[in-house]
Amino acid sequence: MKISNSTAEDISEIFRLYESATAFQKTKYNLHWPKFETSLVETEVNEHRQWKITIDGKTACVWATTFDDPQIWEAKNADPSVYIHRIATNPEFKGQNMVAIIVDWAKEYARTNDKTYVRLDTVGQNEGLINHYTKMGFDFLGLFDLANTDQLPAHYHGNPVSLFEMQVV
Fold first, then answer.
1. If you average pLDDT over every residue of the chain, what do you get?
2. What's the CA gap between 22 and 88, in Å, rounded?
3. CB within 8 A of 120, min separation 6: which ones?
4. Residues of the domain holding 162
5. Number of folded domains in the chain?
6. Rounded to 5 degrees, what angle do the CA atoms 47, 66, 132 make?
7. What is the DSSP letter of 138?
8. What φ, ψ does residue 117 adopt, rounded to 5°?
9. CATH number, domain at 8?
10. Is the pLDDT of residue 31 over 80?
11. Whole-prediction pTM
């Protein structure tokens, strides 16, 4: 298993995993990911904020990070944090607890970058994800209506978000 930055060559695989995750979301929930802009992922790749886990040469999981997330975290954005977005697991690796691997990695990544928190969000009150993320050690902060979503992907518009954080010790 290896964790590394995604490259431009990975973009089609990232979108394949997004499409797979969205198809799964549609079977379980009313809210699901929209089709993301290619430029969003290209920017993340170029800024070394798009990540992947590879196992036996296959992409097992992808996610994105940022150190700044003001539209979602509003006043709390001032806290030094690593924000995780769009975790998408390859169906071939479902059940292998990719989130636990990402959490362990993110805690170390936060420490290395002098951050106090690892944070993530999900749109809506998704009880399955709330339970999963709290089992991974995140504190569920509650459901929040965002003041300004104009620069966020479409699924955030008009929908509350569940916020999660983990303090890195």
1. 94
2. 9
3. 83, 84, 85, 87, 133, 138, 164
4. 2-167
5. 1
6. 130
7. P
8. -130, 150
9. 3.40.630.30
10. no
11. 0.94
- Cite the beta strand spans of the chain per DSSP E: 2-5, 50-55, 58-66, 81-89, 117-123, 139-144, 161-167
Q: Are 52 and 7 in contact (CB under 8 A)?
A: no
Provide the token pair at 61: 């999981």
The secondary structure of 23-58 as a DSSP string is HHHHHH-S----PPPHHHHHHHHHTT-EEEEEETTE
Residue 90 identity (one-letter amino acid): N
Collect all residues with Cβ–Cβ distance below 8 Å to 56 and sequence separation of at least 6.
none
Counting every residue, how long is the chain? 169
Cα 32 to Cα 91: distance, rounded to the nearest angstrom = 17
Distance CA 59, CA 110 (A): 23
Q: pLDDT-based confidence at 162, cuts 50/70/90?
A: very high
The per-residue pLDDT for 154 is: 84
- CA gap 78, 76 in Å, rounded: 5
